[in-house]
Amino acid sequence: MRRFKVRVEIETEIEIDQAVFDEVDDDWRAAFYELRTDEQIAEHIAYNLIYNRLSFSVLDGWNLPVDAARERIEAAMEPDIELEEIISA
């Protein structure tokens, strides 16, 4: 059997309305996720929009209309893929 090491990479942009960041406070964190920085919030959202293919409206913790988030993903639907065969000795 042949083995391969694979790396899949996607580059994209998302826009997140400031109201999304403003919603995250201590009460929000107690009920949902321990996100402390804007970068952690954006990463959490991006991960779920891209990797889990969720829409913003179904993410836990944000009671905002979808247009307030203005989620916009400009990803190439074909990711960059690097492949290397692993040769056993």
Describe this structure in words.
The protein is of the alpha+beta class. The protein has one domain. Helix content is about 30%, strand content about 15%. The chain has four helices and two strands. It has helices spanning about 20, 25-30, 40-50, 65-70, and strands at about 5-10, 80-85. The chain is elongated.
Question: How would you briefly describe this protein structure?
Answer:
The chain has helices at 18-22, 26-31, 38-50, 66-69; strands at 3-9, 80-86. By secondary structure, the protein is of the alpha+beta class.
Blueprint (SSEs and pairs):
Blueprint: E1 3-9, H1 18-22, H2 26-31, H3 38-50, H4 66-69, E2 80-86
Antiparallel strand pairs: 1-2
List keywords for this structure.
single chain, 2 strands, 31% helix, 89 residues, 4 helices, alpha+beta, two-stranded antiparallel sheet
